[in-house]
Amino acid sequence: MEYRLKLEALVTPTLEQMGYELVRIQMQGQARPTLQVMAERKDGLGMTVEDCTQISRALSALLDVEDPIGGAYVLEVSSPGIDRPLTRAKDFTTWAGFEAKVETDLPVEGQKRFKGKLLGLDELGRMGLATEKGESWIPLPQVKTARLVLTDELIAAVTKDTSEG
C-alpha cells in the first residue's frame, strides 16, 4: 500500500499540471510487471489516444529520472472506461444513481460483496448502496474494490455527456 502511495505522490503533480486527474495506479503481473496508470481529463471530456500518449511520454520521462521501481516493467496508460473503478471519495458522489459492485476487506452487515444503486456519501464518510435487501452504508476505508456496472442507463448518460461536448 505504501508503495502505491509513493507512486501516486510522484505522478499526481505531473498529471494535474497537464490537465488530468489520477484515477488509479497499480502494479500488475509478476513475470512481466506492468505499471497501470488510469487517468481522466479535468475538463470532463473523454480521454483520447493522444491524451494517453502525452501522459505516457511525460510519465516515462519522470519515472526514468526518479526510478521508483526496481527492475524492468511496462507502463500502461488508460482511461477509466464506462464501467470504471470507483477509487476516490468524489467518485461515489459523482456516480450516485448508477449501479455498482463493491467488495469490502471485512464483512459489513455480514457480507463482503454488494451490488446496488449508489447513494453517494453520508456525513460519516460512508458510501451508500441501495440493494435488494435495503440500504447498506460502508465506511470508505473498508472498500476493497468498487466498480460501476455497465448498464443501458450508464451508457446513455456517458454517451449523452460526450455527444453534448
Summarize the structure.
The protein is built from four helices and eight strands; from the N terminus they run H-E-E-H-E-H-E-E-E-E-E-H.
Cα-to-Cα separation, first versus last residue = 37 Å
Give a short account of the largest sheet: 5 strands, antiparallel
What percent strand? 35-45%
H/E series: HEEHEHEEEEEH
What do you see in this structure?
- The protein is of the alpha+beta class and 165 residues long.
- It folds into two domains: 77 residues, RimP-like superfamily, N-terminal (GMP Synthetase, Chain A, domain 3, 2-Layer Sandwich); 76 residues, Ribosome maturation factor RimP, C-terminal domain (SH3 type barrels).
- It is 33% helix and 37% strand.
- The chain is built from four helices and eight strands.
- A five-stranded antiparallel sheet has the order 7-6-5-4-8. Strands 1-2-3 form a three-stranded mixed sheet, with helices on one face.
- The model has no long low-confidence stretch (mean pLDDT 92).
Helix and strand arrangement:
Blueprint: H1 2-18, E1 20-28, E2 34-41, H2 49-66, E3 74-78, H3 89-94, E4 99-108, E5 111-121, E6 126-131, E7 134-139, E8 143-148, H4 152-164
Parallel strand pairs: 2-3
Antiparallel strand pairs: 1-2, 4-5, 4-8, 5-6, 6-7
Helix pairs in contact: 1-2
Search tags:
165 residues; alpha+beta; GMP Synthetase, Chain A, domain 3; SH3 type barrels; three-stranded mixed sheet; 37% strand; globular
